[in-house]
TrEMBL record:
Keywords: Lipid metabolism, Lyase. This is Enoyl-CoA hydratase family protein. The keyword Metal-binding does not apply. Belongs to the enoyl-CoA hydratase/isomerase family. NCBIfam families: PRK07938.1. It comes from the Bacteria. It comes from Streptomyces crystallinus. InterPro entries: ClpP/crotonase-like_dom_sf (IPR029045), Enoyl-CoA_hydra/iso (IPR001753).
Amino acid sequence: MGVSTTAPEKGIRLVTVDFPPVNALPVHGWYELADAVRTAGRDPGARCVVLAAEGRGFNAGVDIKELRRDPGHDALIGANRGCYEAFAAVYECEVPVVAAVQGHCLGGGIGLVGNADVLVASEDAVFGLPELDRGALGAATHLARLVPQHLMRALYYTSRTATARELLAHGSVWRVVHRSELLDAAMELAREIARKDGTLIRLAKAAINGIDPVDVRRSYRFEQGFTFEAGLSGVAARIRDSFGEEPGKGRERS
């Protein structure tokens, strides 16, 4: 359990997240993930990083139970900072990051894949921000990198999800494959990237980040300020305490 890094092939580093049962990460888990991605990207032998997860879903965001157990704001501050570090690590990774997404990709998962370079998804993958149902805000910055502006707003306000096929139609997913083929498909793409010159691929990553129209680090940090305001006002705790009690939340769009 936790975050592990392997080198399955020359030029490729595989970072795998495993926090059963649903990959809802505690504060330390976000920092572990950030450290793993940064270390993998700094490896002079790396040309591409594949970000994957064990279990039935890619990522379910922060560990709500950890926030509930904290009578103060330390856990909220920790989650905010941990998510910020993990999202930034993916974005700033010195080599391209390919995210292999299966099952649910929610909340913090959107922050990770929204900052990745390329997404490969399984047929059962769904993407969304159920933040309003969990007493939080944030990662609209990253959802806006996956879907058009008005769809992002609709998904955000309703807490609904979009399927991998829908994201494929929007051009934000590279391939949609059967779940059993997911890692192979991600590795196939990573292998193609890893054949490029190591110095040039790093320059390419820096150049592409440099022409981004939105500073994802600053815009996400701005969003986090409203998350903390919701925490101070008490509304976040009230919604978190009822989380899971109302059926039918966060369903796929029909």
